[in-house]
Amino acid sequence: MPDRIRLDGRVAVVTGAAGVIGTATVRLLAERGARIVAVDRKPQDLQAAIRDLPASAEALAVTADVSHEEEVAEYVRAAVDRFGTIDVFYNNAGVEGDIRPITEYSLEAFRRVLDVNVVGVFLGMKHVLPVMFKNNKGSIINTASIAGLVGSPHIAVYSASKHAVIGLTKSAAWECTATGVRVNCVCPGLIDSRMLSAIIDGRNPGNAPTPNEKIVERIPARRLGQASEVASIVAFLASDEASYVSGSAYTVDGGRTAA
Q1: Are 41 and 65 in contact (CB under 8 A)?
Q2: How far apart are CA 93 and CA 15, in angstroms?
Q3: What distance, in Å, lies between the first and last C-alpha atoms of the chain?
Q4: In its keyword annotation, does this UniProt entry include Oxidoreductase (predicted)?
Q5: C-alpha–C-alpha distance, residues 155 and 148, integer Å
Q6: Domains and CATH numbers, the chain
Q7: Which end of the chain has less neighbouring CB within 10 Å, N or C?
């Protein structure tokens, strides 16, 4: 019986590949045999993200801003030119934006968050789906957040953007029902990362760092999540083990949204 979690020979495009979750996912997908197209707007960080991949891994790094349609079209074109197709698309790039109340949020900052977190996800699907439709197969995984499931103070714009990602995911899954393409999203909770640190610091400007025990006391698991734990869910959704899964939002939050 074939190993249904393996991704041997499949082509996986990962945006936001230089971030902690993106890097962990690139590594895991490569370990499971996927050929990698790593996308990020920071070329030095992008090269660092693919530097430690298995020696047997085939990887292509593409610098792009996911909020610019011509650059999205280019990373899709580069993937197809190099590997012939796209089997897995981890639509992961995102920003937290400013951490401040709605009344203090500038329109420019609001639009920037939506440009990356919503427009970037939309453009990625817009350009990747036609490639997958040609082969009548593929798996798209969008990065949402538990902030797309519940509200939270001072990150209203980020929360709104992630609610939108979940809506895009569910609608895209319906649009793909007559094809072999599946569309799902992951909703990370409090993951040990730069983004979490930025949100915590933004809520407590000028104050001493919040102790970890205070941060995790409302998480049933009583700890922060790790990027590798999000990557594991992405790899599952990319694999044949998830062949009957589409339109779902998988929480990876230590039980936070169940508390």
Answers
A1: yes
A2: 5
A3: 40
A4: yes
A5: 11
A6: 11-192+227-250 (3.40.50.720)
A7: N
pLDDT in tens, 33-62: 999 999 999 999 999 999 989 888 999 999
Q: How many residues are present in the chain?
A: 259
HEC string of 198-212 equals HHHHHHCCCCCCCCH
Answer yes or no: pTM beyond 0.85. Answer: yes
143, pLDDT greater than 60: yes
Write the burial class of residue 115 (CB in 10 Å: 0-12 exposed, 13-18 middle, 19+ buried).
Answer: middle
Can you tell me the distance from the alpha carbon of 76 to that of 198, in angstroms, rounded to the nearest whole number?
A: 31
Beta bridge partners of 61: 38
Model confidence pLDDT, tens digit, residues 170-191: 999 999 999 999 999 999 998 8
Q: Would you state the pLDDT for residue 212?
A: 63
Q: Is 75 a catalytic residue?
A: no
- Which residues, in sequence order, are CB contacts of 45 under 8 Å at separation 6+? 18
